[in-house]
Amino acid sequence: MEILLVTARPRVLTDFTAALAAGGAHVTIAPDAATALESAAAGHPVLCVADENLPDLEPFTLVARLMQQNAMIFTAVVSGLSEADFHEAGEGLGILKRLPPNPDAAAAKDLLATLAAVA
């Protein structure tokens, strides 16, 4: 299973990334939204995880563009927003899951379980 992780801080997310890989995922890291959109067009990720504070796009805008490109890609967003604010910002985008600002191995396992339940 291909997972595209879009983050400008891959070192901070090492435990999260390692747990995704341990769960059977092949993780590709894109440093920004532009690279992520190119990677998604060239490959076939099942899931795209968009980190907050990307250098070139807001994560919800990236999710919207990914949906235009391929509506079959599941998405998750790393966000420090409250549940209510996250719901408002992501309304209509079909985001699979909100992840905490610094997701760890437990968050990765939870994300993989959620993905397995819907995929």
UniProtKB/TrEMBL annotation:
It comes from the Bacteria. GO terms for biological process: phosphorelay signal transduction system. The modification 4-aspartylphosphate is found at residue 51. InterPro entries: CheY-like_superfamily, Sig_transdc_resp-reg_receiver. Residues 2-116 form the Response regulatory domain. Gene3D superfamilies: 3.40.50.2300. Signal peptide: none annotated. Keywords: Phosphoprotein. This is Response regulator receiver protein. The lineage of its organism: Bacteria, Pseudomonadati, Thermodesulfobacteriota, Desulfovibrionia, Desulfovibrionales.
